[in-house]
Amino acid sequence: MEIRTEETMAVLFADVCDSTRLYEVLGDAAALALTGDCIRRIIEATGYYGGTVVKTMGDGALCTFASSDDAYCTAVHVQESLRGASLKVRIGFHIGPVIVTGGDVFGATVNLASRLAALASPGEVLMSRSCIDALHAAYRSNTQRLRSAVMKGSVDAVEIYRTLGDPENVTVAVGQFRHTLEKRVGILTLTYRGEQSTLDETTGPMLMGRDAGCGLIVQSDWASRRHATLEIQNSRFTLTDHSTNGTFCLDDNQRLQVLKRQPTYLLTSGIISLGIDPSADQENLIRYQFATG
Asked: Which long-range contacts (CB under 8 A, 24 or more apart) does 259-264 make?
């Protein structure tokens, strides 16, 4: 007899766009390789943020998370990793009760997450108001309400939100409506050896490293001369590593990310360490704090 339990979790669907056309244009082998790369990125991001890949469906994946924050971070991570790629992914997620049985999940929460993914444009992340209410304030500030809609199978109207993303795609059609998205950046405060620096939409990129010409000079043997750059991209504060040893980011949920010639968003607060694990060089930690404007 199968064990059935009811749990509250965030359910995320990610679908590769135009996969059928891809097989027709590129052929089976090439299309399978590209689609497989997208699915791999989804699986890796899900694991990094503590989620579970319930199943993959050829050109998509169903994943579950303990929190709305983890689903949000996974969705943003996947979309950023595919920026500029030939394939796009549409993502939708919702949080609520689900029935867990036989390694699969069922229920209205799963159905709504699937429909949100189907509504999303390529490269877009849609979520419900329930997800927004459960999000960390810093993540919530990077979202925009679109409209309310009665979804198939739902009695009440669902408030639909999206993440702020590519500035070239600032309007989104939902039903017969189009809404223009407003950019909201906020302020990022950096603290290094008791000295504070701030970044906002009026400041230019900040270079960090040992070089005397850097905006933030880090006096560490582990830091490269021009180690990493902080700047605003896609309405978010973005840290990009340029170094040999990498840049270590520890967020306020104690998730450690190691960047090697890669970018990441700084969405809440945490610690940056240039070239070495934060636990190994307490003297040269850079603390960051995001606040809405």
From this structure: 259/228, 263/80, 263/233, 263/238, 263/239, 264/80, 264/238, 264/239
Percent helix, strand and coil across the chain, each rounded to 5? 25, 40, 35
pLDDT tens digits along 77-133 = 888 888 777 778 999 999 999 999 888 999 999 999 999 998 888 889 999 999 999
Task: Assign domain 4-180 one CATH number from 3.30.70.1230, 3.40.50.300, 3.40.50.11740, 3.10.50.40.
Answer: 3.30.70.1230
Q: Which residue has the tokens 């989104």?
A: 172
Q: Could you tell me the two tokens for 101?
A: 């049985």
Most distant CA pair in the chain, distance = 68
Q: Is residue 8 within 8 Å of 95, Cβ to Cβ?
A: yes
Tens of pLDDT, residue by residue over 63-75, are 999 999 889 989 9
Are residues 77 and 139 in contact, defined by beta-carbon separation less than 8 angstroms? Answer: no
Residue 167 has pLDDT above 80, yes or no: no
pTM above the 0.85 mark? no
Q: Among 2.60.40.420, 3.40.50.1820, 2.40.50.140, 2.60.200.20, what is the CATH number of 187-291?
A: 2.60.200.20
Token couple for 198 = 């701030």
How far is Cα 251 from Cα 266, in angstroms, rounded to an integer?
8
Q: Are 109 and 11 a contacting pair, CB within 8 Å?
A: yes
What pLDDT does 21 receive? Answer: 67
Structure tokens at 132: 């927004």
